[in-house]
Amino acid sequence: MERKEPLANKEEYEELVMHIGRGHAVDLGSHGEANILLGEKIMLSFVDMPANSYADPHRHENTEQVMIILKGEADFVVEGKIYPVKENDVLVFRANVEHGAYVGPNGARVLDIFTPPRTDLLAKIRGNK
């Protein structure tokens, strides 16, 4: 089918199209490294969590989080209760919900979606430049 619209130029393409793995690298300490892609009001964070690692319980005061388990498995501790999750499971954390995790023996790769973007991760990104 013939296209009527013009092809985006290089600058337009680079402004709109992002690539997984080419975002901002952020060290998350004991529970892995994030590769972060940013929009104006949303943040995508691809996180590789090492085998048998532990993410301390924490909360995000003004930020909602959707977490998609892309690979592996973990036991998430949410408000003091354990939720075993595996590939293709999705967790939704409202703002200010305490959560952490015990990562399984094969590690885990997750996609975190934050809205609005987390200010602490934005500060780390600014510090990495």
- Mean of all residue-level pLDDT scores: 95
SSE pattern:
HEEEEEEEEH
The percentage of residues in β strands lies in: over 45%
| Assigned CATH architecture | Sandwich
CATH fold group:
Jelly Rolls
Instruction: Give the number of domains.
Output: 1
- Helicity range: 10-25%
Task: List low-pLDDT spans.
Answer: none
Structure characterization notes:
- Strands 1, 2, 3, 4, 5, 6, 7 and 8 form an 8-stranded antiparallel β-sheet that branches.
- The termini are far apart.
- This protein is mainly beta.
- The radius of gyration is 17 Å and the shape is globular.
- The chain has one domain: Jelly Rolls (Sandwich), CATH 2.60.120.10.
- β5 and β6 form a beta hairpin.
- Helix content is 13%, strand content 50%.
- It has helices at residues 10-16, 119-128, and strands at residues 24-27, 33-38, 43-49, 54-58, 64-78, 81-86, 90-93, 99-115.
- The chain has 2 helices and 8 strands, in the order αββββββββα.
- The model has no long low-confidence stretch (mean pLDDT 95).
Question: Which short descriptors sum up this protein?
Answer:
2 helices, globular, mainly beta, Jelly Rolls, 129 residues
Helix/strand layout:
Blueprint: H1 10-16, E1 24-27, E2 33-38, E3 43-49, E4 54-58, E5 64-78, E6 81-86, E7 90-93, E8 99-115, H2 119-128
